[in-house]
């Protein structure tokens, strides 16, 4: 009986991780608005090793179309600028000697469609992870009926509970995707 609860709990944890991962992935997709998370992949050389940009500078968004990077050490400004240029961010930085400004360009219709498609792919990946967690839990429950002699009615109840949890998480994925798609497609 306690094992069955563990299977259900493990499935729910895996589904929660899938949602958190999806949320993180969607945050990295540039939707025409300034979001500091698009700079998460930028690494800056600092005393002989590559460190994340946020470790050597503060990153702010004063408005919806601008990201401002203020290095903590003035000599790093050139290194930060070079790191942004070499990254996949796709935005040319403007340097005034004290801060680096990134102007977020408006998205073209074609780019919006591509980003929406990428978001949909991320949502599908999350759904697959959630379905796999459900499948694993149900298989474990069925094995416990055969191996451990768990009563079938308890197993059926646990399967129904796993299905309810699955449905709830799939709806969360759909909601996250719908919100991101709306954000991307809003001009």
Automatic annotation (TrEMBL):
<dbReference type="GO" id="GO:0006415">
    <property type="term" value="P:translational termination"/>
</dbReference>
<protein>
    <recommendedName>
        <fullName>Ribosome-recycling factor</fullName>
    </recommendedName>
</protein>
<comment type="function">
    <text>Responsible for the release of ribosomes from messenger RNA at the termination of protein biosynthesis. May increase the efficiency of translation by recycling ribosomes from one round of translation to another.</text>
</comment>
<dbReference type="Pfam" id="PF01765">
    <property type="entry name" value="RRF"/>
</dbReference>
<comment type="similarity">
    <text>Belongs to the RRF family.</text>
</comment>
<keyword id="KW-0648">Protein biosynthesis</keyword>
<dbReference type="GO" id="GO:0043023">
    <property type="term" value="F:ribosomal large subunit binding"/>
</dbReference>
<dbReference type="InterPro" id="IPR023584">
    <property type="entry name" value="Ribosome_recyc_fac_dom"/>
</dbReference>
<dbReference type="GO" id="GO:0005737">
    <property type="term" value="C:cytoplasm"/>
</dbReference>
<feature type="domain" description="Ribosome recycling factor">
    <location>
        <begin position="23"/>
        <end position="185"/>
    </location>
</feature>
<dbReference type="InterPro" id="IPR036191">
    <property type="entry name" value="RRF_sf"/>
</dbReference>
<keyword id="KW-0963">Cytoplasm</keyword>
<dbReference type="InterPro" id="IPR002661">
    <property type="entry name" value="Ribosome_recyc_fac"/>
</dbReference>
């Amino acid at each position: 009986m306690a094992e069955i609860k563990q299977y259900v709990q493990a499935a729910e944890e895996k589904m929660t991780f899938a949602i958190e991962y999806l949320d993180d992935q969607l945050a990295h997709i540039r939707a025409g608005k300034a979001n500091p998370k698009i700079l998460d992949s930028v690494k800056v050389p600092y005393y002989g090793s590559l460190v994340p940009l946020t470790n050597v500078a503060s990153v702010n968004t004063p408005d919806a179309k601008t990201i401002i990077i203020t290095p903590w050490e003035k000599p790093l400004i050139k290194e930060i600028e070079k790191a942004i240029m070499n990254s996949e961010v796709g935005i040319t930085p403007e340097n005034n000697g004290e801060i680096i400004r990134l102007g977020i360009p408006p998205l073209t219709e074609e780019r919006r469609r591509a980003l929406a498609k990428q978001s949909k792919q991320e949502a599908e990946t999350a759904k697959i992870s959630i379905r796999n967690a459900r499948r694993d839990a149900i298989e474990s429950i069925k094995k416990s009926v055969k191996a451990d002699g768990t009563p079938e009615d308890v197993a059926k109840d646990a399967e129904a509970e796993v299905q309810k949890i699955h449905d709830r998480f799939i709806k969360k994925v759909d909601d996250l995707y719908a919100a991101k798609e709306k954000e991307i497609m809003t001009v």
